Task: structure prediction
Amino acid sequence: MSEGVTIDNNQARIQLLKRWFKSVLAEVSPSSDFNDFTVNLVQGDASFRRYFRAQNQNLSYILVDAPPDKENNQAFVEIANAFSKKRVQVPTIYQFDLEQGFLCLSDFGDTLLWSTLKKAQSLNADATSLYRAAFKELLLIQQVSVEKLPLFSEELLQQEMELFRHWFCEGILNLTLSDQDNKILKEAFDFLNQSARKQAQVCVHRDYHSRNLLYLEAKVSDESPIKSEFKSHIGVIDFQDAVKGPFTYDLVSLLKDCYIAWPNDQVQTWALEYRELAIQQKILDKGDANRSNTEESMFLKSFDLMGAQRHLKAIGIFSRLFLRDKKITYLTDIPRTLSYLHQVAAEYPELNELHAWLEIKVMQDVEQKILAASNNDSSNSSSNISGINNRNTEL
Result:
């Protein structure tokens, strides 16, 4: 499909979305006049969804354009309802049209947890209270029933890691993988898969990180009838891919975030704090000696290995977003994400071969290799490329 056709289709869907919002506004806000609203693009994301803010002088809604042939909107609605029943702070769905792929949601604002964390980091401030707010929501998510959720199967875990081989190794680095290279990767993938499957299986958000969490200003007074344990500064979005899967998956997504990094000692302290909270909530059984996430050292090992699996996936996705979808900004997140993988591979003997392979085939001059890949793509402007170089200095 040509770029011109894509732009025309986007404009057509915007007009359809506006007409749909006008048609449901009487139910959403009976006293409001559609002509008083402005509708502006908020953002797109790594998927095909786009978000718009419909706003008048007093009200603000988020309109979602999620093409039904590309996005699972039924799952979004069902999981939003399941999360809400457990008091997870997700957007209210005021109206939806699954056939067209349109939704009208409450507006959580624009302040990502990521930007609040970055500010704390720049000021050398303690971010523990922010992570505790995110912990509170995650504890609720992990208590959601998994009865109707798809299984985070061995096949799916394997497919995620294969993204690293195809899109990053072969695509970005332009490596021709030998039989020995593929053997090393296969053995590492199998080991990480087995580790994930041994963990307690709970409801997993699958993208629980700082750019899918909104920092919310508290809007409830001390006299509010809402119980204090349900007050939160964190709003949860992008949950439609929830599955039944490994306990540490969301926790490592949050603490070993692809978009912001903290010292490993601090990450371990936060991870162990969450472990204790999960035991208190009976999400984990401290007395079950057969589980890999009961003793602290084994818990941290499960946590680290789960992170390695997820970071393999993330590196592959960032590479695919650039190579297939021409989204250049995600390239800047690869070195940070790769550093997590490299660190874990060095720490655990079972991944010694992977670590040695990374040292030889991947880590040497990796930022220059990524920059070279961006330069080889003729669709990127020189300003975008220089922006990558500048941002990489922060990694």
In short: The radius of gyration is 22 Å.
